[in-house]
Amino acid sequence: MRVVMIGTGYVGLVSGVCFAEFGHTVTCIDKDADKIARLQAGVMPIYEPGLEALVARNVADGRLFFTIDPRQAVAAADAVFIAVGTPSRRGDGHADLSYVFSAAEEVAGLMDGFTVLVTKSTVPVGTGDQIEAIVRRVRPDADVAVVSNPEFLREGAAIEDFKRPDRVVVGLTDPRARPVMAELYRPLNLNETPIMFTDRRTSELIKYASNAFLAMKITFINEMADLCEKVGANVQQVATGIGLDKRIGGKFLHAGPGYGGSCFPKDTLALTRTAADAGSPIQLIETTIRVNTARKKAMAAKVAEAMGGDVVGKTVAILGLTFKPNTDDMRDSPALDIVPALIALGAKVQAYDPEGHEARLLLEGVDFKDGPYDAVDGADAVVILTEWDQFRALDLERLKSLLRSPVVVDLRNIYRPEEMRQSGFTYVSIGRP
Fold first, then answer.
1. Catalytic residue positions, numbered
2. Residue 344 maps to which CATH number?
3. Model pLDDT, residue 197
4. pLDDT of amino acid 190
């Protein structure tokens, strides 16, 4: 099939490349001419394991194209996906849909023949109705079916998630769109992937409800970690014990410094605003947002406490700055709260992240280093903030020799407390005695 992807951000690029890998002919479109030129040259705008090789293969095989000009591709397309950003709108927390509506208006004027217009961006309930109204206003004669097809990709594992998803959700009101969407995802039939067809509004809400529930689950285990620290219990064992219950499950029960990233913070906020406007406030999610925000801000105090309560003039080494490993995404990373707070307390910060290059633009007053041992050298404590693989098996003797004092604050629970203490470290982790 002929597919157009409007937007070459995280969702658009990964989805477009994977559709090409399925055998469809895909054209990815973006207004950023520099980004398109770099993609045409094989330079990725984001870090995602396996993405560069996948792009190169599908470009070479003639299934994947990049352009700034949508006219020819949209006119020939069977399906056009809108995969542009929906950031939180300043002032009220609602999703900013201006990019979505602009894309819909542009595409409406270019379609030729029956076209399925698919919203891949994360959007509030009712957005599909607004998109359809825009199309009808611009092109009253348009032969179009507007569909919702939310994404469920995890950064760092996005390609695998697209190829082997838990489910595919398709929301539609025009039955003509169903065979088109079924054909697009037909390669997943081999894995017997459930494809759920529903109405458009239900599909839009499924996406927000999924992210809100996972954010709530993370926040729950973080609060259990705080309780474990007070009563002398082990949060990892608590998580395992409750996760073995199939009604609960073990995923997203890893205690840490709080959730971040491109989805959970903005999507939970947008959902609470939608719910409030509808007269049905969601207090659980409102509390989740408040608790998570406070948690990230409190982590600097936890580091200071591990260092004797005073960090003035002391050096803190930070290992990991992105919100999670295997991504270069700094959006709402706990580092953006923790690092400035440590500096405000009087600490000097030196840091390293394998892919978090954007941190240099977002964090002032940080001495950025070229490797984990460079970052640790001469520090009074080291904080493990992101669980990159290269931080999981550090040379502990070398680590101790480089530190001024052997203090390790492990906010991701990578190491075993008893082993770290036997190795001579003052070791602090999350929710473990």
1. 263
2. 3.40.50.720
3. 98
4. 86
Mind listing the pLDDT tens digit for each residue in 35-71?
999 999 999 999 999 999 999 999 999 999 999 999 9
Nearest partner of 82 among 130, 137, 21, judged by Cα: 130
Q: What is the mean pLDDT of the chain?
A: 97
Tell whether 130 and 52 lie within a shared domain: yes
Residue 297 lies in a domain: yes
- Closest C-alpha among 368, 361, 383, 296 to residue 332: 296
Alpha-carbon distance values, 383 to 9, 271, 349, 426 (Å): 31, 33, 10, 12
- Of 150, 180, 198, the last residue of a domain is 198
Between CA 320 and CA 401 the distance in angstroms is: 21
Q: With bands split at pLDDT 50, 70 and 90, how would you rate the model's confidence at 100?
A: very high
Question: Using one digit for the tens of pLDDT, what is the confidence trace for 71-87?
Answer: 999 999 999 999 999 99
The pLDDT tens digits of the residues spanning 208-235 come to: 999 999 999 999 999 999 999 999 999 9
Percent of the chain with pLDDT over 90: 98
pTM listed for this prediction:
0.93
Name 320's Cβ contacts closer than 8 Å, sequence gap at least 6: 335, 352, 353, 356, 384, 385, 386, 387, 388, 391, 412
Q: In which domain, by residue range, is 301 found?
A: 264-428
- pLDDT by residue (tens digit) across 333-351? 999 999 999 999 999 999 9
Considering the domain architecture, whether residues 57 and 186 belong to the same structural domain is answered as yes
Instruction: Report the C-alpha gap between 134 and 377 in whole angstroms.
Output: 58
Place of tokens 């070229």: 370
